[in-house]
Amino acid sequence: MIYKFSAKNFYSFKETVETSFEVNANAPHTDIYVKDLHGNRVSKVLSVIGANASGKTNLLKILTFTQFLIRDSYNDLKPDEKFPFASYKFTPDENVLTELSVRFNCDDMVFDYFIKLNRQQILEERLRKLNNHTKQFGVLYKRTWSIKEDKYHYSLRNFNFSEKLTTKRTNATLLAIAGQAEHTLSKKIINCWDKFIANVDQIGREDYSGSIFEAAGFYEKNTEIHNKADSLLKKFDLGLSGTKSTKYTHKSKSGKEEEMYLPYGIHSVKDKNYDLPLLYESRGTQNLFILLHKILPILKSGGIAVFDEFDADLHPLMLPELVDMFASKTSNPKNAQLIFSTHHLEILNRLDKYQIVLVEKNAEKHATEVFRLDEIRGVRADDNYYSKYIAGAYGAIPEI
Length: 400
Known about the structure:
Blueprint: E1 2-8, E2 17-20, E3 22-23, E4 33-35, E5 41-43, E6 45-50, H1 56-76, E7 98-106, E8 109-117, E9 122-130, E10 137-146, E11 151-155, H2 174-180, H3 184-194, E12 196-198, H4 211-221, H5 223-235, E13 242-251, E14 257-269, E15 272-277, H6 283-301, E16 304-307, H7 318-327, E17 337-341, E18 356-362, E19 367-372, H8 385-390
C-alpha cells in the first residue's frame, strides 16, 4: 500500500511535487477508502487528469522508476551504466540533483524511502520505519556519498546489514544490493514491490502489440482468472460468450522454436459457437482482454496498479466499472490500489475530490504542477466536478 510519493527535478517536475493517497476524517466512509492498522485512511483509487503534455505520464513514472530503483537497479544496470530517467531540462544549473521519495506499507510495517541521485550515481539514500509505539519514524539505514573521499559513508546500525557486504556500485540502491545478499528485510520489501504492475516505463506508455499473445498464455495457465476475465468480457456486452486459445510453435528470429498461444473470441449464434481470432476483434476488445490479465491478479493478491490512459480504446462506460472493481471489498479483498490517467472526464462525477489529481504545465516556469482537488479552497463534496472542470474552475485544462 502506498501512502504518498514525491519527486523533484524529474522529467517535467522542477520543484518538489507530492501526490498522496491519504485522506482525512472528512472523506466519505465508503469502501473505496481503507484504514490500516495504524489508523491511517487511504484511498484505493486516484485518477490523474490534465491536458496533453501537462505531465500526467511523468507523474506515474515517479512510481515506476522508484520500483525500478528498489527492486531492479542492481540486476538490470551494468556497474557503469547510467540511470534510465531524465532530469528537468529547462534550468541553467546542471548540478541540481533529482530527489524521489515514497511512503509505503509492507506486511503492516510503514516505511519512508528517500533517494537523491543524478544520472550517474546515488548521492544519498535513506530508509526509515514507523515505530508503532512512538508513532515516529526511525532511521534503518542511511548512506551518503562523500565527494572528497570518493566513497559512501554508511549508517547501518538499525538495518542488521554489514558494511562488508556492500559493493562499490554507485548506480544500485542499498535495498537492491542487500536483497541480492539475502538480507531478510530487504527481500521482504522487494517482494512487496513485486506486487506492482504498470503500462508505463521511463520511455512512455507500453505498446500493447504482442501483449495479446502474452495474455492468452497467462489465461491458459490461470484458469480461475481466465474464467473471471471471460465473465467480465461478457458483462461488458462485447458480443462474446467467452475466449479460448490454441497453442502453436513459433520460430523466433534467432531460429529458436517457442510456444505461443493464439486467442480466439467465441461467438454464440443460434445455439452454435463460432471461433474468431481475437486479432480480428476491435482494438477495444483486444485491449480489455490484455488489461484484465494484468489487473485481475493484482485484485486477487493485492498490490499497486499504475496505468497511463487506463481506458485507451475502451468505451467510456467501462471505466467506472473497472474503477468499481478496486473500490469493492468483494472484488478487491486485499485492498489493491489503482492510480491512472484518463481523458474520459465523466469519471470525475464518479469519484470524490480526494481521488482526483489535477496536473497542469505552468507556462511561465515551463514546469508541471500537481494538486489534489480537495486542496482547492471552496470545492464542495456535492459539486459537479465534471461541469466545473470543463468550465475551467479548477485549472489543468487545455487552452484551446
